[in-house]
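Note to self: keep these together.
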Amino acid sequence: MTELLPLFVNLEGRRVVLVGGGPVAASKLAQLLAARADVRVVSPEVHEDIARAGVAIDRRAFAPADLEGAWLVVAAAPPDVNREVAAAAGERRVFVNAVDDPANATAFLSGVVRRDGVTLAISTGGAAPGLTGLLREALDAVLPRDLGRWMREARRLRPIWRRDNVPMSARRPLLLEALNNLYGRGNLEKAGNLATAPNLASAPNLASAPNLANAPNLANAPNLANAVHRGFVSLVGAGPGDPALLTRAAVVRLRTADLVLYDALVDERVLRFARRAQRFFVGKRAGRHALAQSAIHTVMIRAAERGRRVVRLKGGDPFVFGRGGEEALALRAAGVPFDIVPGVTSAVAAAALAGIPVTHRGLASGFLVVSGHDEEAFAASIDGIMPGGVTLVVLMGVALRAALAHRLVARAWPRQTPVAIVAGASTPAQDVWRGTLDDLAADRTTIGRDQPAAIIVGGVAALNLTDVRALVDRDNSTRALRG
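Structure:
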């Protein structure tokens, strides 16, 4: 494959000829207008978006003379027309971009990410435009949210370095120091949410810039060593289990992690994204913690202070019964920079994967998520709830399910209230039991007590929107509740 020279071209005010008038040509026209090019369209027929764009249009077939004075031509026409355009462009030494037709192209438009004055472009030489799009999305996901701040700092420093005759070889480590200083301890209180800037510490190539160790002025940069080795912690939600339900941000954190501390409900397939990291189980099994919560705080803080990128990985969402709030407070008190990556909480996902909407017109206009691991705390949570008024989602309550059901019945919840238990949601072992509150109180269920599961109580639990038959004939108890 021919190696291409990446090149950013200033087309402002320069003539670009667009051959073709269909939807594809319309999409290319939008890119050209964004670059402020002087566009002339040549095509017998044009898409309505092109007609409304206010550009010059020649409604006829292409002629070689159309390229006179052009800096670039974009051919978005059938292959035979593209060949004619390419031949005319070659004679006039004009680059031609032939859309999805690399054989007739000498220039290739790229997948572009534009953020705060920074432009990144990806190209596969026209051979794999789908891959170009995927790579563009991946780059967009890993760019820091406050890239504009980096850009402003770099722009501020450049004239200073030029004035002081700082050599180019020395500027990169100095810029790295300046960027890391934006997140220094002294600035955290003034920075608001800046302490949670997600990607500075975990930007794969920033701290590992290849020429950093050999930069001439590295030894004289007083704070650079500490800045480069400053660690970072991410509190990451792993979702209900299936790796496909991870957020893109979660995958990025795992791939760049040095240390992963994970809980019992995290699927092994999720951990495979952290191939380069040390992985330690710190969760709870059989009622016993592998590591006390205070010890988890200590491990995270010490690892970050040693410059490590730490991921605290939790099933579901870190702020839904995941003690993520306690960990965030501990990190903030220690002055450790961190961010929170939300996950798909099992409180909603488990029900949805069983075809149960937690809210549904005529059945439930709200839902309440409560913990079921402590019977007294559960009773206090439901005391102020009108029976059947909302959907009740109970997490960590399978072991005490009969006792929790008795508590609900004692508070006037009808015994025929529909109930569903979803165990192992989103995993190959997913299992769903359906019954009534009376069945639950008598423990007439098929779900093991040691399985991670969500209990859904309310009229919606009788629905199964993944089963067409259930839509036609709903359970009698659901109809009775609806009145």
